[in-house]
Design brief:
With about 260 residues, the protein is α/β, with parallel strands linked by helices. It has a domain at about 40-105: Roll (Ubiquitin-like (UB roll)). About 30% of the residues lie in helices and about 30% in strands. The strands form three sheets. Strands 6-5-4-7-10-11-12-13-14 form a nine-stranded mixed beta sheet, with helices on one face. It has a three-stranded mixed beta sheet with strand order 1-3-2, covered by helices on one side. It has a two-stranded antiparallel sheet with strand order 8-9. The chain is elongated and about 110 Å long. The N and C termini lie far apart (about 110 Å).
């Protein structure tokens, strides 16, 4: 009798376990098939990419299983496809919503390479490419707040990747420029047309098509630029010419009419 009771309990246990397992499987099937389907995709607004741009780049579409989406893969797709993207955060909101938040960064520098004008961020990421009419920076409609850099030391420049210079000193020079102008909302660069660092011992800057500023060598660029601004503040609004900083702390000004004509 005891043996029969024992086997009876075993049968009941396995039957209960089977029923629970079956019920759990049915529940998971139903929830995945009917309940946890993506019905709403929220995308944060930004001033660079449209809703459709971001959705297409993510590879996600409505009707997919909410918990079947590979979040990291989708985030990486957006970063790789939309070069102005800085950070991406995708979150699931049960039962049927997916949220995509992206932050975009603005261009800071521009570089002309073989007829194409490349936009570079503060983090030296190549963000965009504009086809120029010819191989001169002035042939490109310069985006607002972008400072054009002229150099022959480009080693690698691909959209979505970090630009590489063959001369490491260029990074330090550009970082100083970023520190100097980066505190202002527009970078304070709208008046500066370009900085020529083709020869790092003869750095020059076009300031508003009014002044050709000669800095000389790379070192101490921040105090040199600040001194130049002081000189410009003391000049008349219609003055134009050459501001020479190559002597170090000494600044000289030579009036030249239509210097960039």
């Amino acid at each position: 009798m005891k043996i029969n009771n024992f086997f009876s309990k075993i049968k009941k246990f396995f039957l209960a376990a089977f029923v629970l397992t079956f019920a759990a499987a049915v529940f998971l099937f139903l929830t995945n098939s009917y309940f946890f389907k993506i019905k709403n995709i929220r995308i944060s607004s930004n001033d660079k990419y449209s809703y459709d741009d971001i959705l297409k780049a993510s590879g996600i579409s409505e009707g997919e299983e909410l918990y079947g989406v590979n979040i990291k893969e989708a985030e990486n797709k957006i970063k790789q496809t939309l070069a102005y993207t800085n950070n991406v955060n995708i979150t699931r909101i049960p039962p049927s919503t997916l949220s995509i938040e992206i932050n975009t960064e603005k261009g800071f520098f521009g570089l002309m390479i073989k007829g194409d004008y490349y936009i570079i961020s503060k983090n030296f990421k190549v963000m965009d490419k504009i086809k120029a009419a010819d191989e001169t920076p002035l042939s490109v409609p310069r985006p607002e707040g972008i400072i054009t850099i002229e150099t022959d030391e480009i080693k690698k420049c691909y959209i979505g990747e970090k630009i590489e210079f063959s001369d490491e000193d260029i990074y330090n020079f550009l970082k100083d420029i970023i520190k100097l102008f980066g505190e202002k909302e527009d970078g304070g660069l709208s008046i500066i047309k370009n900085i020529d660092i083709t020869d790092k011992y003869k750095i020059t800057m076009n300031y508003g098509d009014r002044f050709l500023v000669k800095f000389g060598i790379f070192e101490n660029i921040t105090p040199k630029i600040l001194n130049v601004f002081k000189v410009i503040d003391e000049l008349r609004d219609d003055d134009e010419g050459i501001i020479d900083m190559t002597g170090g702390k000494t600044v000289s000004f030579k009036y030249v009419e239509n210097i960039f004509a």
